[in-house]
Amino acid sequence: MLEIKNLTATTSAQEGKRSAASILKGVNLNLKAGEIQIVMGSNGSGKSTLAKLLAGHPAYNILHGSIRFRNEKLVRCLPETRARLGLFLGFQYPMEVGGVSNQDFLRLAYHSRYKKKDDILNTSLRFANRILNYVKILDMDSSFLPRPLNQGFSGGEKKKNEILQMAITGCELAVLDEIDSGLDVDALKTLSKTILIYQLDSLFNSRFLQTTKSLILITHYQRLLEYIKPDKIQVMKEGKIVCSGKSNLGNIVDRKGYDWLSGTGLGSCLIENINKKKLQTLKESVF
């Protein structure tokens, strides 16, 4: 479904500068239909940059590499084209938009994907049914729907609204940037449950009873793994994916931290050799 090859990127402000520093430095990632992958890493490792690049954020430029989503090249696609292809980005800090009600925003987003395939009446009925179902699953108050988009919402309510948008648009790939940050235990359980229900919903709509919805969850912490078991964990450091493994890799990182994978500073050659042995041991324990 998603294939990223040797992706190198910088910010638009640095474009054309000889000394422009790359934020992403050769990222490679493959995601199959129906897979859940978690991308972990410390602050500044490039996780959010990768998410925004996938969505087509204008603040970043691709210097080298390719991104293919559902056999389409994304590099030159506009953000709205990517969204219509089925790519959704859940923001780490959702924006507040005054003058636009939450319900109108969701309706327009839904119709933009489906109105060309079906008549407006059937689409509107499905939208109403879908939004009521997911508002209930998310344990949201329906009074949030006529209110301005995210305006006056708490941090947890904004995160729930992001998941509601994901479910309403019926995206094929959802990239959720630190959807677990700032949530209490109950809110995290509710969001995790909704994410899994959304993914499993595609199972019953598939001719071959296979899940087709894919997820990339970006996080710092291991606690998300208590509720969602991924097919693979990718660990980013300094703009690269430096380690991949099964779900128990998150437990190892939680115990040892991200500096365990570092090879810089005094005696870097010695540390690099030690890390090679550590990574070999890690791969043996993971696989």
Automatic annotation (TrEMBL):
Coiled coil, from the record: none
InterPro entries xrefs: AAA+_ATPase (IPR003593), ABC_transporter-like_ATP-bd (IPR003439), ABC_transporter-like_CS (IPR017871), FeS-cluster_ATPase_SufC (IPR010230), P-loop_NTPase (IPR027417)
A Pfam family matched in the record: ABC_tran
Membrane-spanning parts: none
Domain ABC transporter: 2-265
Domain of life assignment: Eukaryota
Matching SUPFAM superfamilies: P-loop containing nucleoside triphosphate hydrolases
Record keywords, A-Z: ATP-binding, Chloroplast, Nucleotide-binding, Plastid
Gene Ontology molecular function, alphabetical: ATP binding; ATP hydrolysis activity
PANTHER family hit by this protein: ABC TRANSPORTER I FAMILY MEMBER 6, CHLOROPLASTIC
Full protein name: FeS cluster assembly protein
Species for this entry: Nannochloropsis granulata
Lineage of the organism: Eukaryota, Sar, Stramenopiles, Ochrophyta, Eustigmatophyceae
Recorded name of the encoding gene: sufC
